[in-house]
Amino acid sequence: MCGIVGYTGYRDVVSVLLKGLTNLEYRGYDSAGMAIRDGEDIKIFKTLGKLINLKNELESHRSEINNPVMGIGHIRWATHGSPSLVNAHPHTCSCGKLVVVHNGIIENYKELREQLIKKGCKFRSQTDTETIAHLIADEYSLCKNLETAVRNSVKKLQGAYAVCVIHKDVPDVIVGARKHAPMLIGIGEGENFIASDTPAIIEYTKKTVYLEDNEIAVVTKDNVKVTDINGNIVKKKVEILPWEPAALSKLGYKHFMLKEIHEQPDVIRNVLNGKLYDIDEPVELKEVNIDKNILKNLNKIQIIACGTSLHAALAGKYLIEEFSGISTEVEASSEYIYRRTTTDSSTLVIGVSQSGETADTITAIKQAKEKNAHVLIITNRPDSNMARLADSLIHVNAGIEVSVAATKSYTAQLISFYLLAIHLAEIKGFKDSKYLKGLKHELIQLPIKIEGILSDTSGIQKCARKFSSYKNFIYIARGINLATAYEGALKLKEISYINATGYPAGELKHGPIAMLDETMPVLSILIPGGITYEKVLSNSEEAKARNAKLIALTSIDDKNLESLFDFILRIPPVSEILSPVIACVPLQLLAYYIAEFLGKDVDQPRNLAKSVTVE
Description:
Elements: E1 2-8, H1 13-22, E2 31-38, E3 41-48, H2 51-60, E4 68-76, E5 91-92, E6 98-103, H3 109-118, H4 129-143, H5 146-154, E7 161-167, E8 170-179, E9 184-187, E10 192-195, E11 207-210, E12 215-219, E13 224-228, E14 239-240, H6 256-262, H7 264-272, H8 292-297, E15 300-305, H9 307-324, E16 327-332, H10 333-336, E17 348-353, H11 359-370, E18 374-379, H12 385-389, E19 392-395, H13 408-428, H14 433-455, H15 458-467, E20 472-477, H16 482-496, E21 499-504, E22 522-525, H17 533-544, E23 550-555, E24 567-571, H18 579-597
Parallel strand pairs: 15-16, 15-17, 17-18, 18-19, 20-21, 20-22, 22-23, 23-24
Antiparallel strand pairs: 1-4, 1-10, 2-3, 2-4, 5-6, 6-7, 7-8, 8-12, 9-10, 9-11, 11-14, 12-13
Helix pairs in contact: 3-4, 4-5, 7-13, 7-14, 9-13, 9-16, 14-18, 15-18, 16-18
């Protein structure tokens, strides 16, 4: 992995590929490269590090590129072999005529590699991708047809792949294939595109065709042909992309992450729009296609997710059980897929993913479907793999999120869980209608309260500067805000590289308290009026007794903490049940400003990828 773009047409090939790769940078990468068909030759350029290095490399050789007609580009996030020029994509066969870029992991590459070495193939890298290049070249030597060679080769691959292939002897043709990794075709006039994600092509066309597993595309500037693994023509629907190119602009903000934090009030409004019309009317989830009688009798829900989405799922579990009384489990997708589960036809399985392409969650969803569970997907990408697998769908409608660290998509997932939980409560009659009416009224007010936080972040910046030199952090909370503590710690860890850990506040004395001294700040989340307030306060006092520096996240009307805490972050008054939506915002900003003060690459932190498309 991590990003692919290909182009054939009348535009400047180098510029199109560079722009496409630039728009995929948010996914995370450690090297970049491209292969350009220039007249009769294929020229390859690779560099380590940021895309600017590839741009500079291309600029230094621009006079050598005379008649480019097509090309493929790639940004790599290392899975096999360390980041290096020899491991960077594109990869070639032994003679250099055939060129491949690849996202995914080939699980049987070692066996294939040994077979190909015996046939005389000379390997240069440690990657699984180079095996694909030699394999297709070997098949091409037998059939002399690139499409057939790709088809015969991918039948031998085990694992996940999205590949683009060009060959010196086959002008103006890009062949693409996919299995368990995303790939799409952009349709133009006298030009066509191929890419792993929509931002790579959004500036040039909104018309797209999504490849499914085991499909192969032959792309020229004037035509696109899609077949299945056996060569049968597949008729594809042309879909229109929902985004504008402006979504990829920082719009004056220093970083995409800061822009996306500030977009959250409107994101909440977007999620509520069309689902919560009036506090006196039921929540409407049109794409939740479960019979109401089935929902009334539902007694088990399983939520599977990874990373930030897993934290949203933890809050979702609390809400569903509180509002509907339905027993709900939450599990990391990577754990779910390797154990015997109790999933069956009476289970509602909820998969949560920002990208809808998270490999572990896709695998888990497929396993759940095999057991006849109804699958509901919560995702920011209704055009994604997971959305296509869904029986029911909640589109979080956050817009494209460029920064690797999730912010607005997390908030949108939280709001989606509130709507789902209220929907279940209204169907089952588990909660008093007056209570739900008040909850919906407060839900509508959340964007205004968040705008109040964003209007003055000077206090958060001051706190960030004061604590930016610490090497470790502990975040504590109880109840529904335990998810907030986990997510706040993850944000700090992701972008500042400070070792931050979230704990249930009551667990502090069961081990973590041994770590507390004046070098260990503890951030406590306390919501006045909440059932856990006094207990978290007591746990904070225990930390203070061990000389820990204390930060409180509390309401602006809480006046009882000045003598205990070294710094207080304040949010507008909010009921405890809705507080995670507001409480996450100052924690996102705290992580952002600490990382900025430390000079970190906020939008593209090291070693991370936006969409983890391999297990």
